[in-house]
Amino acid sequence: MIPEAREVHLSRKDRKVLEACCRSPVTLQRDLKRARIVLLAADGRSTRSIAKEVGVQPRIVSLWRHRYADHGLEGLQDKPRPGKQPIYTKTTDKRILKLLDKPPPQGFARWTGPLLAEALGDVDVQYVWRFLRSHKIDLVARKSWCESNDPNFTAKAADVVGLYVAPPAKAIVLCVDEKPSIQALERAQGYLKLPNGRALTGQSHDYKRHGTTTLLAALEVATGKIIATHSKRRRRVEFLDFMNSVTATFPNRKLHVILDNLNTHKKNEDWLKAHPNVQFHFTPTSASWLNQVEVWFSILQGQSLSGTSFTSLKQLQEHIDAYVNAYNDRAEPFVWTKKKVRQRRFKGRRITQL
């Protein structure tokens, strides 16, 4: 049964709003029908005739006549509909964060999604994963850091960086270090054809050792070129022999050599007295990253050593020498981009002993 039709009285202001709504090409169909219903009702049309013209049920016309008569234009808006109550709330999120602050269950190295859901008891594992993703919490990734406790960090860092940014005139700045125990591993390599027709390239897990070599390298900061040699051991004797060859490469030139705090690099006063043109500069304790040759070692590992196979120690050494020659042909100096180097403590850090 259709309720008794309500009289609709439009003010001039409301009529202009509804007529503009009907003329606008961007008006939603639902809003357009509601505006037409009210305008026709204000003209004295019956509910059934309005329903036939607009193309809706009579009860719909009756609804919007009553809504406008009671609430005006605001009555033509949809009322907020109560949705389903969320299962998980901010309290659940706080419980997950609080649990992450606690150590994982005994025997486990870290928390996982299923472990968190099991510990919470009433939270689905899929919600745990969604929450972790929304907060950009990665349970697998691990950050590492090396904090220098050198009381003279600032002075030493400024000394090294100063040589990079503003090297002394008519002097050579070199970064020297060793990459010890590079293994000559022989691995089966090639292509593996799968039953589905795909071909994979790679290497086997089995390998044969053919000895190790220690690479001593000096990077010339101004050009980026490398001077390198091989040694069986990593002792003071081998280091000073390498430095003798380096000084012979730059005769009658002032050399500033940047080194880390390895014991073989220090207490070489007798050698330095015999070579007055050479001055050693040491990076701060636990800050060998300031030595640019460390960057080159990572380039060597990624471009030359990873994924290769060697049948002898000599083959490994020749392979490295060939890479050094190729690298020097296109060598460019590293560009120092960091504006400030300073010792800064981690504030409020928490280091948990497990």
TrEMBL record:
Superkingdom per UniProt: Bacteria
Xref: InterPro entries: Homeodomain-like_sf (IPR009057), MscS-like_channel (IPR052702), RNaseH-like_sf (IPR012337), Tc1-like_DDE_dom (IPR038717), Transpos_IS630-like (IPR047655)
Residue ranges constituting the Tc1-like transposase DDE domain according to the UniProt record: 173-317
Pfam families per the UniProt record, alphabetical: DDE_3, HTH_32
Annotated protein name in UniProt: IS630 family transposase
